[in-house]
């Protein structure tokens, strides 16, 4: 069963535009090959880090939102862990709020009836 996920990762700030595009495309293709759908990639740009990570004070933030089976996450995170370009990553499972709101409104209608 596919769930909605958000992966945010931070790349080294010394990557050039070509290298940046190459890394983003690599992870995008990896997700698509593993069956991810509704893939959205947002480059958040270079930002100052709250604390030093791997001797870097800045990093390039990239956010990916997608729908995929849970088995894809382990493969993606393993690739990021082994990559020299990625200095930090985090994947969270997103809850679908629309269905919760719809269920609550149906429950309220049932109580009123």
From TrEMBL:
One of its GO terms (molecular function) is small ribosomal subunit rRNA binding. Keywords: Ribonucleoprotein, Ribosomal protein, RNA-binding, rRNA-binding. GO terms for cellular component: cytoplasm; ribonucleoprotein complex; ribosome. PROSITE patterns: RIBOSOMAL_S6 (PS01048). InterPro entries: Ribosomal_bS6 (IPR000529), Ribosomal_bS6_CS (IPR020815), Ribosomal_bS6_sf (IPR035980), Ribosomal_S6_plastid/chlpt (IPR020814), Transl_elong_EF1B/ribsomal_bS6 (IPR014717). It comes from the Bacteria. GO terms for biological process: translation. Binds together with bS18 to 16S ribosomal RNA. Belongs to the bacterial ribosomal protein bS6 family. HAMAP family: Ribosomal_bS6 (MF_00360). This is Small ribosomal subunit protein bS6. It comes from Gloeocapsopsis dulcis AAB1 = 1H9.
């Amino acid at each position: 069963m596919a769930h909605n996920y958000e992966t945010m990762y931070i790349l080294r700030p010394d990557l050039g535009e070509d290298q940046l595009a190459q890394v983003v495309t690599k992870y995008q293709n990896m997700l698509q090959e593993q069956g991810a759908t509704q893939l959205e990639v947002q480059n958040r740009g270079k930002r100052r880090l709250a604390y030093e990570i791997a001797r870097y004070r800045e990093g390039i933030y990239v956010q990916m939102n997608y729908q995929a089976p849970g088995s894809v996450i382990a493969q993606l995170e393993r690739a990021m862990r082994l990559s020299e370009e990625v200095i930090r990553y985090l994947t969270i499972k997103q809850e679908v709020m629309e269905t919760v709101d719809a269920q609550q409104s149906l429950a309220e209608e049932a109580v009123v009836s």
